[in-house]
Design goal:
membrane, transmembrane helix, 2 domains, transmembrane, alpha+beta, 167 residues, 4-stranded antiparallel beta sheet, 5-stranded mixed beta sheet, 11 strands
C-alpha cells in the first residue's frame, strides 16, 4: 500500500465517522453504515477506534462549599437556611453535624439553624436530586451580619456543604 492510498483510506474512514458521502476523482462514493468496520480492519486508526468503543461515560458532580464565621452572641437571633427551586421539585436531605435534620421534598424549604448550631465548627450538608437538570437551585443563608446566596444548575444533583464556625 503506498502513501496516497493509505491517506485516502484514512480520509474515507474519518469521513465515515460523520456519515458523509465521499467524493474522489469526481465520483460520488456512498459507503454503507458497516463500511467503517471493514475499513478499520486495514486502517492504521483501528486502535484509536477500538479505544473509543471501549470507553465509558462518567458523570461529574460539582460539590460547592461555603465557610462563614458567626459570633455566638448572635445565635439568639434566627439564622435561616432556604433551598429554593424554580418550579421544580427537589428530593434530598439536610444534615447538621452528621445528623439528618430534614428531608427535602418540595420546591422551597426554610429552617432556622440557630438552635442547632454549637460553638466550634458546624457542618451543614445539603444533598439532593432535582429535575429537570437544567433547573436552578438556590441556597440562601441569612442571619445577623451574614447573607449568602449560591445557585446551582446543570447536573440534576445537588451537593453543598456549609461550614459555620461559631466563636
Amino acid at each position: 500500500m503506498n502513501l496516497i492510498s493509505a491517506t485516502l483510506i484514512g480520509i474515507v474512514t474519518i469521513i465515515n465517522l460523520i456519515n458523509l458521502p465521499v467524493v474522489l476523482n469526481r465520483e460520488l462514493i456512498v459507503k454503507p453504515t458497516n463500511s467503517l468496520v471493514n475499513l478499520a480492519q486495514i486502517d492504521p486508526m483501528r486502535r484509536f477506534d477500538q479505544f473509543w468503543r471501549n470507553q465509558t461515560v462518567n458523570t461529574s458532580v460539582q460539590q460547592n462549599s461555603t465557610t462563614i464565621t458567626l459570633d455566638s452572641r448572635n445565635l439568639s437571633s434566627s439564622h435561616y437556611l432556604k433551598i429554593i427551586t424554580n418550579s421544580t421539585k427537589i428530593t434530598g436531605t439536610i444534615t447538621v453535624n452528621d445528623r439528618k435534620l430534614i428531608s427535602l421534598n418540595s420546591s422551597e424549604t426554610s429552617l432556622d439553624l440557630a438552635p442547632r448550631l454549637v460553638k466550634g465548627m458546624n457542618t451543614i450538608e445539603i444533598v439532593g436530586n432535582y429535575s429537570p437538570s437544567n433547573a436552578n437551585v438556590t441556597i440562601q443563608f441569612s442571619g445577623v451580619g451574614n447573607s449568602i446566596t449560591q445557585q446551582s444548575s446543570g447536573s440534576g444533583i445537588l451537593q453543598h456543604k456549609l461550614i459555620i464556625n461559631v466563636r
